Description:
This protein is of the alpha+beta class.
Amino acid sequence: xxxxxxxxxxxxxxxxxxxxxxxxxxxxxxxxxxxxxxxxxxxxxxxxxxxxxxxxxxxxxxxxxxxxxxxxxxxxxxxxxxxxxxxxxxxxxxxxxxxxxxxxxxxxxxxxxxxxxxxxxxxxxxxxxxxxxxxxxxxxxxxxxxxxxxxxxxxxxxxxxxxxxxxxxxxxxxxxxxxxxxxxxxxxxxxxxxxxxxxxxxxxxxxxxxxxxxxxxxxxxxxxxxxxxxxxxxxxxxxxxxxxxxxxxxxxxxxxxxxxxxxxxxxxxxxxxxxxxxxxxxxxxxxxxxxxxxxxxxxxxxxxxxxxxxxxxxxxxxxxxxxxxxxxxxxxxxxxxxxxxxxxxxxxxxxxxxxxxxxxxxxxxxxxxxxxxxxxxxxxxxxxxxxxxxxxxxxxxxxxxxxxxxxxxxxxxxxxxxxxxxxxxxxxxxxxx
Length: 433
């Protein structure tokens, strides 16, 4: 959050690994819950970018935390070991987080045990530290942590304790030290390293309307002040759901808003383990719903995300059922039929392409969860040919402050036959949208 995060550089992509049972995977900071942001492993919140009005996806998800995370922080945080890991992933660099940069975020949050809290803070949710991920170049550089300069106040108090009613109350949060120079070999932050920021948060009761939730909300105004200026974000939390709306107001260059379109346990939502943005996520954000539509009604949202002309019901051999309401999952399942032996309305070229794809999937060891460039790598391995660059398959370019001119849609995770839809554009079908 805020400027200190924007200044971070990049490390490699998150990798989903085998997960131990929760009790073994997570330590004392994840055994308690805050009702304004309840969490369990692989919970997923999908947000739509409403300003700028791209409707692109930003995904918050709970991921396995790194076993090496065990830094000691000054009192009262004590040992910030094994909190929750929240991954914040986007595709469009114009979206939250770090507006303008092609960065994702890994963020450590936890509820401290009562024995390690100042009086009155039991059940509060804290931030212990974070680092960033560049989904494009995957280079390592910085980390970040939050400490408190006053042992009577908690460090980086993100959300009020359960049941608190501090409408209009403001609290000093502490200081933020950022930059790898501030971290010693013993995983302790040196007072002489990094720059100290002053943080505060003010809470108030309000209401909010988003595509996925309308009703009462807890508003938190997060303010960071340092020598460069003032940085402000408003977060809105719904009880038993989590964050539902984020509004960055300062600095103006970082201004953006996110509105919730899907949350854990919501009727129609699906389970996914990856921290990154999938084609399902991107279309859900664009449509603003996890509900049902007809095949034809899902088409414009598919086209808006992929910039490919949406297949017709005839293309997927769906007729006469194309006017029945279906979920997005079923819509994407229908697209899998295109060009197969069971649906020959469209015949993929070259005629060996289905065999080529099968060989690619075998070499990759998966049929899903790879981005455009990763699938292209396996295409080259199988065929010996370079394959089409993203701009050759209708992917638009966007300027990023971290990576220059780029095709962000190439970072969306696809299954093999979804990638094939892009590839087949070079063979004459489908057209660009």
